[in-house]
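Because discrete structure vocabularies remain unfamiliar, we reproduce here a specimen of the format, pairing a chain with its fold in token form:
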Amino acid sequence: MAGPDLDAQIKQLDATLHSIEQVLDLDGLRTEIGMLQEQVSVPDLWDDQANAQRVTGRLAALQGEVDRVTGLRARLDDLAVLAQLADEEHDAQAMAEAEAEIVRVAKLVDSLEIRTLLAGEYDMRDALISMCMSASSNMMCWWAAIGVPCSVPLRTRSSRYS
């Protein structure tokens, strides 16, 4: 097998991707794609423009999601094979390529995991946060570090900001 660290990273990515595949329910998505393709093949689909746009938009989104996940699965599987062959052949160049690829795949898996976590019923809505600055001025530094703009007007109410 590949080096223990690389092998462990591949196994971790595999486990994460497997859980994403389960949450997304790829079989269910493929079934829905099949039903939407049947609706798209109906000759009078475009008689109702709003419904046609809804159907074709949903179909494109689902196909994109399935393609994204299956493509990532194929890359991860290829990466495991590349790492194993590089280790067996003691090929430093192939091992370096595998190490570079694992960084790219890890970023994609992490991004997909976040998208999956934020794909619930209410996740497209805005959020409202409230914070009390009297606790620590270090909080403002933390909020600034994660990208919350400090120029957002705050309304003062007693000793709390909201």
